[in-house]
Design brief:
The protein is α/β, with parallel strands linked by helices. The radius of gyration is 17 Å and the shape is globular. The longest helix is centred in the middle third of the chain and has 18 residues. It is built from 11 helices and 6 strands. The protein has a 6-stranded parallel sheet, sandwiched between helices.
Length: about 220
């Protein structure tokens, strides 16, 4: 089946950006005098920014409102997405190849829209995509529901046979596969511990987009 639609995760897949999130929550809590739990990053990585702030407020009985917690932690994230973030190796040539082949592309991300738009713009990727949908807009995160992938596919007028989801995170790979999508998994160091399971689940596995010089390797 010819590839018609491609749905891309953003952080860790298109953008070299996961490191900005890895210690954000723990560092913010320490700065406020709290002792973060060892597994905090694993908990926060499947949540939106506001959901993470709500979790920390509830878990650590923080007196600040969710808006105040967001305001205390957002500055370095905004600076990164607006001014610093770069695409991962091989992303630009691969997106150019897909665009040349007439493949419709959409971004499905857990990141807030304004940060996603800024990050794609900073990395020079905006023009390749027909649009962005966030998990907040879809109404569910990738760990619990494939809605964000399904809505992106629908907007591209694709179907499960001619659409590929590109993801780096195990929980998202697992959800997309369970929903019947073909998945191309992309390595990111943030998911190092999950690589064996990601390889097992994915239809195609890439250490880098530089490995793909033609789209036949991901077509069904």
């Amino acid at each position: 089946m010819r590839l018609q639609a491609a749905v891309f995760d953003m952080d860790g897949t298109l953008l070299d950006s996961m490191h900005i999130w890895n210690q954000l929550g723990p560092n913010a809590l320490r700065a406020l005098g709290y002792d973060p739990e060892p597994e905090l990053h694993d908990i926060l990585k499947v949540l939106t920014f506001r959901e993470g702030a709500q979790y920390c407020k509830d878990r650590y009985h923080m007196p600040q409102s969710v808006d105040e917690i967001v305001a205390l932690t957002i500055a370095p994230v905004e600076d990164f997405y607006f001014r610093q973030v770069r695409p991962k190796a091989g992303v630009l040539p691969f997106l150019s190849l897909l665009k040349m082949q007439g493949v419709g592309m959409y971004v499905a991300t857990n990141t807030d829209r304004y940060l996603a738009e800024a990050g794609l713009r900073c990395a020079g990727l905006t023009s390749y995509f027909k649009g962005i949908i966030t998990c907040a807009e879809a109404g569910a995160g990738k760990a619990s529901s494939p809605l964000v992938f399904q809505r992106a596919m629908s907007r591209l007028q694709g179907n499960l046979q001619n659409t590929v989801v590109f993801e780096d995170a195990l929980h998202a790979v697992r959800t997309a596969k369970a929903a019947g999508f073909r998945v191309c998994a992309v390595y990111d160091p943030s998911a190092e511990a999950d690589q064996e399971e990601i390889r097992r689940l994915a239809d195609t596995y890439l250490r880098s987009f530089e490995e793909l010089t033609e789209i036949e390797g991901i077509e069904g």
